[in-house]
Structures are given as C-alpha cells and as structure tokens.
C-alpha cells in the first residue's frame, strides 16, 4: 500500500497550504498579544516588571563626569584648536538608591 507520486504531491501541498493559512492567521494575532503585553508591562507602576527594575536595577549604574580646564577658550572657539588643558579629570560615581 503505497501512495502514488500524485498522492504525495497533493499531501505535501495540502499540508503547506494549511500551514500557510495558520501562519497568516497567527502572526497578526500573536503580534496583537505581544503588543498588549508590552503596553501593560512597560508602564512604571507598582506590580510590573518595569517598576521592579526601576526601583532596584539588576546592575550598578554609574554616572561619569568630565571636567576640563581650558586655557585657550578663544583659540578653541575661533579655530577649533585642541584644548591646551593639562588633562581631563574623570570620576565614576555610582548612583545609589
């Protein structure tokens, strides 16, 4: 009991058509549910994942400050010359909650 070449071709074409129709239906439906979930969870309200990450971030957050002592401001503004500053001072400051 075998299937003729035409029977196999019809079977594969039918399965492909069914999967194409399911994909055409499920992609917009899936996008709707994903958009709805994102809109619900992105709001920073108590009880959402975004709020938990806002209150207590998973990794430390640093703010970096650069201070320059520009000795030749006119030359920098007029000609775009390099700053004749001794060196930039950098400081990494952890932001505490």
Automatic annotation (TrEMBL):
Pfam families: CD36
Membrane topology qualifier: Multi-pass membrane protein
Catalytic reaction annotation: tetradecanoate(out) = tetradecanoate(in); (9Z)-octadecenoate(out) = (9Z)-octadecenoate(in); hexadecanoate(out) = hexadecanoate(in); (9Z,12Z)-octadecadienoate(out) = (9Z,12Z)-octadecadienoate(in)
Subcellular location: Apical cell membrane; Cell membrane; Golgi apparatus; Membrane raft
GO cellular component terms, A-Z: apical plasma membrane; caveola; cell surface; Golgi apparatus
GO molecular function: low-density lipoprotein particle binding; low-density lipoprotein particle receptor activity; scavenger receptor activity
Segments passing through the bilayer: 7-27
Xref: InterPro entries: CD36/SCARB1/SNMP1, CD36_fam
Main location: membrane
Keyword list, A-Z: Cell adhesion, Cell membrane, Disulfide bond, Glycoprotein, Golgi apparatus, Isopeptide bond, Lipid transport, Lipoprotein, Membrane, Palmitate, Receptor, Transmembrane, Transmembrane helix, Transport, Ubl conjugation
The name this protein goes by in its record: Platelet glycoprotein 4
GO biological process: amyloid-beta clearance by cellular catabolic process; cell adhesion; lipid storage; lipoprotein transport; long-chain fatty acid import into cell; low-density lipoprotein particle clearance; receptor-mediated endocytosis
Family from the record: Belongs to the CD36 family.
């Amino acid at each position: 009991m075998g299937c003729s070449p035409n029977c196999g071709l019809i079977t594969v074409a039918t399965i492909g058509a069914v999967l194409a129709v399911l994909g055409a239906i499920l992609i917009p439906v899936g996008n709707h549910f994903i958009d709805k979930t994102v809109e619900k969870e992105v709001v920073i309200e108590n009880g959402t994942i975004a709020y938990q990450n806002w209150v207590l971030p998973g990794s430390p957050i640093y703010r970096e400050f650069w201070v320059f002592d520009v000795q030749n401001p006119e030359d920098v503004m007029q000609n775009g010359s390099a700053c004749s500053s001794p060196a930039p001072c950098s400081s990494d400051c952890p932001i505490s909650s």
